[in-house]
Amino acid sequence: MDIPDSTISAPAARILVVDDERSMRELLSIVLKRDGHEVVVAENGAAAVEILERERVDILITDIRMPEMSGVDVLREAKRIDPDIISIVMTAYASTDTAVEALRLGAADYVHKTDKAVPDLRLRVRKELERKRLQQENVLLKRALKTTHQFSNIIGTSTAMLAVFQMIETIAPTGSTVLISGESGTGKELVARAIHVNSPRRDRPFVALNCGALSETLLDSELFGHMRGAYTGADTNKKGLIEVAEKGTIFLDEIGEMSPAVQVKLLRVLQERKFRRLGGTEEIDADIRILAATNRDLSKLVAEGRFREDLFYRINVIPLRLPPLRERIEDIPLLAEHFVAKFGTQMGKQIAGISGGALTLLMAYGWPGNIRELENAMERAVALERTPSILPDSLPDPVRSRAAQAESSQPGGDGGAEPFPGEGFDLEQHVENIYRDKILEALRQTGGVKVKAAELLGMSFRSFRYYTKKYNLK
């Protein structure tokens, strides 16, 4: 059989060729290497299984009929060791019974040993690699659909968030490592996704991993993968998320919880762009962008000897801090309205918006759980509300009680507060009257200059414009 001169463009793979004919092994090795693949050969089934036990293999190509151990037996062992391995069998015989048996065991395809065997095999290799790539991207897409990941959908008009948006636009096109810091619930993963979808890697996978949710061994395995037998329960070879995210982005949340042993391996990925699976000896390239996040002070952990200083400097190339919700109060109305619309649609409820009284309570509350807590509060409010507008009674008790405490702790609070008017008091209307009066007074004092009036009230211009439109103030 002649070796075709043209090559077929396909993703590079590690291929194991098993055949008792030396000439066939050499021919396939030359052809597949020409296509950019890494090729390992075995002269019999026993040697092939030994290779599979100790090394990573993406594709297995095996002859059906071999002495002592058949290709079907090799396939059966390969699937036991690595259920995800792609297998292609070759047969020189007219009968396809054994080939059909191989397909039943999970082989992707079979090739007849004819003059067209080599070009047929190359096409099948390319087809299977492309199929696996699309399958992997489909799985990742389904995971990603559960989370908003478009930059425009990050909500905020405050000065602090506008600075974050500008930073995202600036750093997204680069390949630099980014450390996103901020309290729990501030939206660190959403920002990481925004960086990814605005980067040159946008068409490749985005994979997220919470480092604080796994033990050291499981985190090591989840991140770097493992070889069969690497630890108790590791019955098959497994790719880690670094391999899954090849040419894409991996987001490591709560990186401060990572153990020292795993920190060492991650540092090597950042320095040399290589790693080994747990229990493996083979060097695997890592073409990925790493985005990390933490709600802890990593510099303090470094000083305490609980986080590697060299790793800290590697991941802190570009620091990006997300402000807590209490530092962007003017964004609360927009966020709350967004969540009301979202959950109203999900629950099939017609809720037009949020009452002034409820909005006042939302803006007075400290939100220790940040955006995540606000989202949960609005989901509860939508579920409980029976009117077309969210009222204070539908908000969680902590929002009502702590907001009231904050109000009474201000100068003039408690003893200086107005006496409760009694029955027939309309809190919502009372709050709206206060808002309207203060905005009108600010406009009078500034001669109708809206920008100055907003500054006088300590509001962003967009929030000020929102309220003037709401109360129809000219």
General description of the model:
This protein has 474 residues and is α/β, with parallel strands linked by helices. The chain folds into three domains: 121 residues, Response regulator (Rossmann fold); 173 residues, P-loop containing nucleotide triphosphate hydrolases (Rossmann fold, 3-Layer(aba) Sandwich); 132 residues, Orthogonal Bundle (Helicase, Ruva Protein, domain 3), CATH 1.10.8. Helices cover 47% and strands 13% of the residues. It is elongated and about 95 Å long. It starts with 13 loop residues before the first strand and ends with a helix. 32% of the residues are buried.
Overall number of strands: 16
Helix content: 40-55%
Q: Number of domains in the coordinates?
A: 3
Summarize the biggest pleated sheet.
Answer: 5 strands, parallel
- C-alpha Rg, in Å? 31 Å
Low-confidence runs: 1-10, 142-152, 409-419
Average per-residue pLDDT, rounded, comes to: 83
Number of helices: 19
Shape: elongated
Please give the order of strands in the largest beta sheet: 2-1-3-4-5
Shape-level CATH architecture of the largest domain:
3-Layer(aba) Sandwich
The CATH superfamily of the largest domain is identified as P-loop containing nucleotide triphosphate hydrolases
The CATH C-level name of the largest domain is Alpha Beta
Report, as a whole number of angstroms, the end-to-end distance: 86 Å
CATH topology of the largest domain: the name is Rossmann fold
Beta-strand level of the residues, as a percent range?
Answer: 5-15%
Main structural class: alpha/beta
